[in-house]
Amino acid sequence: MQQSSNPKNNLRLNTKVTIYVDAKSTTSKNSSKVFKPEQPQDLRRQVLTINAPVEKTYWEIQQEKHNILLKKHGQSPIKKEFKQKDEIRLSWSEMKIKLAQLAKMRKKSKKRQLQRKHQQKEKQLKLMLENRNLKVSQIEQHRTATLKLINSYQ
Prior knowledge:
elongated
């Protein structure tokens, strides 16, 4: 693996990628070259090998930034080897799916939070109503008791 000399491209690594190309669909507007298989029995498929840049993972870039900051402040940079599970590279479609799943999970948790809040408010209202009913019943009992006392003195 070689790193390019351009400082902007230092985050990219060169790796070989194999691409399968249909012979009919390889004409481009910009070039007059048309890809034709050398032998007719190639079944219209040909293998092209090119050097394609593969970007580093998010965590590797973050570690580099952190190390740069540490060097500026005169501290030694952290050297951590990334395990394979840290280097999961997702395609754009996989990333979209993951983001949609996260959004669903957030929505569900928000819904649960709202349900809990609503249930707590209902409990509080029930308690307040019960307390009010108790107070009303106590006032009524007190009133009936005083009425009985008043009636007993007459």
